[in-house]
Amino acid sequence: MSKTSIKILIVAESLDVNDSSATKGRVALIKNLKQCGYELKVFHYTRKHIILPGIECVAILEKKWTAWYWLSKVQLVIKRWFKINLNTFFEDKLGFSFAFFNDVKSIKDCLSKENRFAPDWVLTLSKAASFRSHMAVLKLPNLHEKWLAYVHDPYPMHCYPEPFNWFQPGHKQKEAFFREVSKKASYAIFPSQLLNEWMEQYFSGFLDKSIVIPHQASSKMVSKEVLHPDWFQGDSFTILHAGSLMKPRNPKGLVEGYQLFLSKNPEARDHSQLLLLGQKSYFKAYLDEKNEEISSLYLSGGYIDFNTVLALQNSVSVNVILEAKADISPFLPGKFPHCVMANKPIIHLGPEKSETYRLLGNDYQYHAHIDDIKKITVMIESLYQIWLKNNKTLQLDRQDLEAYISVSNLEQTFSKITKS
Q1: What is the Cα–Cα distance from 78 to 71, expressed in whole angstroms?
Q2: Would you say residue 33 has pLDDT above 50?
Q3: In terms of domains, do 39 and 181 share one?
Q4: Structural domain that includes position 392
Q5: For a Cys-Cys bond, which of 143, 153, 160, 356 suits 164, CB 3.0-4.6 Å?
Q6: Is the residue at 258 inside a domain?
Q7: Is residue 25 part of a domain?
């Protein structure tokens, strides 16, 4: 079967790249599969009109006349009027919320009516801790032999490594659900080798059917029409961390490492910036205090448009990947391919046993634990000295990583599935 004759039906929870980092990665994967030459049809639950050039996209409508729908609305009214949250109680009993069940039914019923496309494969893409698209396809046994289940993160939450893991309401039912996914899917696709190995410890059904396809990027992602914001100093030595600061991702080491760098290099105060873009709710008080102390520290008020962040990642001097302080970080951050394509040095703050460090390599010099202030300072100073001599020499220059996240590698890896 030639690749041009292969049809892939994609079931995605969202195609809105501004709603989460997960969706950015899923949309990049879809676009690159199209570039590989596969014929695609995408059903998505974004519930608004989305256009992907050259790809047929169908917005799945939410069912509003089901028992699940009305139960979810009653539960919301009770919460709003009486400040009583019944969702946790019912989710603990049923495993999932009323809204989840209604969304799954909406997706399932829409897919069951598709009789024209006749796909060779069905690829399910989700985001966060949802996996609605996976449950919908699980309820359609006729699709199981064609099913490619994309597993972007550990699931359920108690399968996360420390310090993230916690037991969700209905965790036993969620675990049973994912055990069925691992058994019934024809293949499982993971964006990370470490995540693949991590999840196989919990679900043996993934053994011998897992394939690693890293998060995707494209050299054409950044539009020249995107203007840099006025607070960005393009002629300065700029360090960027883009992404929400979840509680385990403490930016203190980065901020204080930068502050110590400034104290040792006072001339850099007028021509350097540390940019933290994204939600900072857990660290708001600390960061606001540091913002008063460090005039060259910029904190965004919240979410920044995806295209603007991409443009900045390609224009700054250094990009930062910040992970939790942990023994292992099996995730491949969604920003990783963007940082690689930006071809700027990456400061990686995280454990040695992480997918990012595995890909960067054991001899990568700009790596430290997130609380190693002294080493972070040394790394910033080293990069700053290179920038002073010639800012154009500040490059990641990793053709191996560019090849790893390329369309060519995607095509080669996906061919292992299509030829089976």
Answers
A1: 11
A2: yes
A3: yes
A4: 237-403
A5: 160
A6: yes
A7: yes
Q: What pLDDT sits at residue 1?
A: 45
Q: Mean pLDDT in the chain?
A: 93
Residue 229 lies in a domain: no
Mean pLDDT of 267-286: 92
41 lies in the same domain as 182: yes
The answer on 367 and 280 residing in a single domain is: yes
Same structural domain, 410 and 398:
no
